Amino acid sequence: MRWLVLILFAFAFLIIEQGATALLSIPIAGGVMPMLLWIVVVFVTLSAPVGTAVGSALLVGALFDLANSYIVTPHEIIVLGPYALGYAFGSYLLVQLRGMVFKDSPITIAAMTVIGGLFVHLLVIALLSLRRLSFLADDPVGLAGSHDDLVQRFLAILYSGLLALPIGWLLIKSSRLWGFPTHGQALRGR
Amino acid sequence: MPRMLNQRRLLATAIGLLIVTSQLGAGVSEWVLYVPHNVLEISTLPFKRMVRWATGGTRAPASDGVNFGQYEQLADNYGAALRRQAYLEQQLIIAHETIDELAAVRQHINMTSAGNVGGGVGGNVGGVGLVYATVASWSHANGALSITIDRGSRRGVAVGQAVTSGMNLVGRVVGVTPMTATVELVTSPSMKLLARVIPPQPGPVPRETYAEFDNSSDDDDRMTAVVGKDQSVVVGDWAHLFDETWPAEAGGCVIGQVVAVEDFSDDPLLRKRVVIEPMQTLSRLHRVVVLTPLSQVPTGMLE
Fold it and tell me: Given an 8 Å threshold on Cβ–Cβ distance, is B8 in contact with A84?
């Protein structure tokens, strides 16, 4: 897989996700935004070798962590790890499932986005909740795990699954750029 | 096989490091991640601004609905007139910014200056520095509402400074990079503001109420406070910032307008709930002003 292509797509989707809030956000549950970067990770996971898939998930998740911050009034805190590990966890789970699905289908990407997204947020909430423990960081951030937060995350997963249909179709069309190994190359261990 | 083992070792190391960094305290985390976060913010800012500019007009703005007909109709549309006023203040900010930039250019080529200090950074009014900024992105994540603006520490923006849109309070700076700043909105769930609620126009009988507002409701754009039944608050009153924990420059800024006064469900006989709403939809602002102490605005800086 061409890592430069992954980085370019990741940056592009990050910019769209953060810049096009007026276009993409849905005004329910406080504003629901799709997880565009996760859709890219799902696409890569369906086609790349295991190590590459998990590694790219870590990289893209780390990019998302660095680009976003948690506001703990009156300061802003950057936490590197929750989404990086969440994306890697979700990607690893999808690797186990990808043998059972058609890889070149936008519907597959959409379904995997929703399924994997649930596990991503599960781990993110767990890691953020650990920060509240007194014998660890004892430095809570945000309202991870609250009712409103869970509703918002669930709606974001569903919204991402919906958007994964057109975005997945576009990503499939761009498959040649990515340089994924063919089945033969994969068997030969390249 | 050895390559796979190395790859696995690398992944395992990365995962271990990320578990550690996810649990770092705020101070250590800021020290470690300050530079990469700033580099990412600065590198993506121009593109985010372009995307926001390109997509900002896809949704129709709230209707102003101003009616300049008969006086009676004007009275009926008083709320719409206030929204129109807020829009015109936005335009005034843009005009002031243009004037300041032109004045800075004239200073730079040693022509007679017409007035304001600023050198392209902003201006000043009554001893308060003004740093004009464009909103680059908006976020509602992790229980906080925030916007990112395209001015940072290089322009004198610092954590704790108030951000306004004309006379309307928008929020407070919670994080800065050299070129950007994160502003937590007043409607963020973690915000609590002390306010003085008074009529927009002085009446025959002066009245005022002091209350602490927060956003504990499901509506992102509204804030509520509980006051005694004896307090005279009516729909249409304005809530002005009256909080010592905020910078003095922001004192008196309008937080919102009272849109509802209802019985407090837990104690309907003795208390009532006051609901206020900002004059503008804060998440869809395009330009804002950061209020800085005048000494913090770097002079002689040009675009």
Answer: no
